[in-house]
Write a structure and sequence with these properties.
By secondary structure, the protein is mainly alpha-helical. The chain is built from four helices and three strands; from the N terminus they run E-E-E-H-H-H-H. It has a three-stranded antiparallel sheet, with no helix packed on it. Bound molecules: flavin-adenine dinucleotide (FAD). This is Amine oxidase domain-containing protein.
């Protein structure tokens, strides 16, 4: 996006959801960028759950729908958020995903790979990510962040 024309209402957030919308809204993928946001091009990710029919037919319809068919629907949806936004779109990629976040494969949650992956490197680099929980939700993000912070503190205590 070259930009997002703003109107009255809430300013841009990480997760932007419109009341009554068929889509789940969009996230600002540059939210954690350290540079000043004003006027800069943006990358956004809009999510659309296909919940208006049963999963099987919805999935088949999704796979049979072409980029050319999806695009005007997505643009029309975005126009309801930001009227006049269409000329600001520089490029649009579309994916059909079973779930917006990662999903654990059998064996991941209780197998050794997950515990092994979160081990620190030389007790200097510590990892905190929901990937180490296997389920991507905020609670797991907080848990992994606190766990990594506690590991750092315990390591510091041993050193000092
Ligand atoms: C639209 C949407 C709605 C959601 N709603 C909910 C909800 O209602 N409730 C809920 O519990 N969860 C929700 N989630 C899931 C939740 O956002 C994630 O589980 C959570 O943000 C994951 O946190 P994280 O810290 O593990 O990873 P992330 O938030 O992905 O953080 C990883 C960070 O690492 C940065 N990074 C990546 N590579 C590098 C690199 N090489 N160098 C430096 N930095 C790097 C990324 O830019 C990012 O900032 C939602 C997700 C989406 C997309």
């Amino acid at each position: 996006m070259e930009g997002l024309p703003q109107g009255p209402g809430r300013p841009l957030s990480w997760d932007n959801v419109r009341y009554g919308s068929a889509s789940l809204g969009y996230i600002n993928a540059n939210q954690q960028g350290l540079r000043q946001e004003a006027g800069r091009p943006k990358v956004i990710t809009l999510y659309w759950p296909l919940t208006d029919e049963a999963p099987g037919p919805a999935r088949r319809r999704a796979y049979q729908t072409s980029y050319a068919d999806w695009l005007p629907r997505v643009v029309a949806e975005l126009e309801t958020y930001h009227p006049g936004v269409t000329p600001y779109i520089q490029a649009a990629d579309l994916w059909v995903w079973g779930h917006g976040m990662v999903a654990p494969t059998p064996g991941l949650l209780w197998g050794p790979a997950r515990a092994a992956a979160r081990q620190p490197l030389r007790n200097r680099i510590f990892f905190a990510h929901t990937d180490f929980s296997g389920i991507s939700i905020f609670e797991e993000g907080f848990y992994q962040g606190i766990r990594a912070a506690q590991e750092i503190l315990a390591t510091k205590e041993k050193v000092s």
